[in-house]
């Protein structure tokens, strides 16, 4: 999914204060921000918890946490 600066009907533009605080300055709408955050979260999760995105990761048991 490519990010685009073109605005389409139904997209909420970010106000100048929201845009000023963004690290990725190419994001212009909340929809683009939401898409970017979702991809960032999925990438981070899959790199820190292999199998989590695929649904195969399981949380450790309480026994594994205390030993």
Write a structural description:
Helices cover 43% and strands 0% of the residues. It has 3 helices and no strands. It has helices at 16-20, 30-48, 62-66. The radius of gyration is 17 Å and the shape is elongated.
How would you spell out the order of helices and strands? HHH
Q: Supply Rg.
A: 17 Å
DSSP summary, beta strand count: 0
What does the overall shape look like?
elongated
* Average pLDDT taken over every residue: 74
Uncertain stretches of 5 or more adjacent residues: none
Give the helix tally: 3
* Content of β-strand: under 5%
Task: Report, as a whole number of angstroms, the end-to-end distance.
Answer: 43 Å
Structural class: mainly alpha
Oligomer kind: single chain
Largest sheet: none
Helix content: 40-55%
List the helices and strands and how they pair.
Blueprint: H1 16-20, H2 30-48, H3 62-66
Could you give a quick summary of the protein structure above?
The protein has 67 residues and is mainly alpha-helical.
Keywords:
67 residues, mainly alpha, 3 helices
């Amino acid at each position: 999914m490519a990010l685009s600066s073109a605005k389409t009907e139904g997209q909420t533009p970010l106000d100048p204060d929201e845009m000023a605080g963004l690290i990725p300055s190419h994001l212009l709408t909340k929809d683009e921000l939401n898409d970017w955050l979702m991809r960032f979260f999925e990438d981070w999760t899959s790199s820190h918890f292999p199998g989590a995105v695929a649904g195969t990761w399981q949380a450790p048991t309480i026994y594994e946490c205390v030993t």
